[in-house]
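ok new one. same drill as before - structure tokens go in, u give me an amino acid for every spot. 147 of them this time. try not to just spam alanines like last time pls lmao
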């Protein structure tokens, strides 16, 4: 499924020569519309490459550029960040999982990533509740089943 382009001013051109070797999984704590609002706002200072929810995939930052999502500069340089529509009392829908699995499979093929070890939760990078209600192992296993 083609991603809808939603521009964000919150990114750094290029990756300082760093290769992509991780996908970082996040939850929005809201809907995809909330991510659109936050990532379009230059004052928020945050972004991600992709957001998934409510039947759509939005791309905010080109994969060749560094999005501001991980809370750790080196991890921003080396990773692609994907946001999921969910909150603490609402898990992602099956459609959101399915779209995430397809997107992650494409990214794993493109960069030669192992889904079991190179798709990581935001909480792997810094101390955070993110990705909350997202079942990251379901995403890893779904991607493994495709590859
Ligand atoms: Zn996060």
């Amino acid at each position: 499924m083609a991603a809808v382009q939603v521009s964000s001013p919150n990114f750094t051109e290029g990756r300082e020569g760093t290769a992509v070797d991780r996908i970082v999984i996040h939850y929005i704590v809201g809907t995809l519309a909330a991510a659109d609002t936050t990532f379009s706002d230059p004052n928020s200072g945050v972004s991600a490459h992709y957001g998934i929810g409510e039947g759509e995939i939005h791309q905010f930052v080109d994969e060749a550029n560094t999005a501001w999502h991980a809370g750790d500069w080196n991890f921003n340089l080396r990773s692609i960040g994907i946001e999921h529509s969910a909150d603490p009392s609402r898990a992602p829908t099956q459609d959101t999982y399915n779209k995430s699995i397809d997107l992650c499979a494409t990214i794993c093929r493109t960069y030669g990533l192992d889904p079991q070890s190179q798709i990581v939760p935001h909480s792997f990078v810094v101390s955070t509740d993110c990705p909350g209600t997202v079942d990251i192992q379901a995403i890893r296993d779904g991607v493994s089943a495709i590859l």
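The longest helix spans residues 94-111. and btw Residues 10 and 45 are 6 Å apart (CA to CA).
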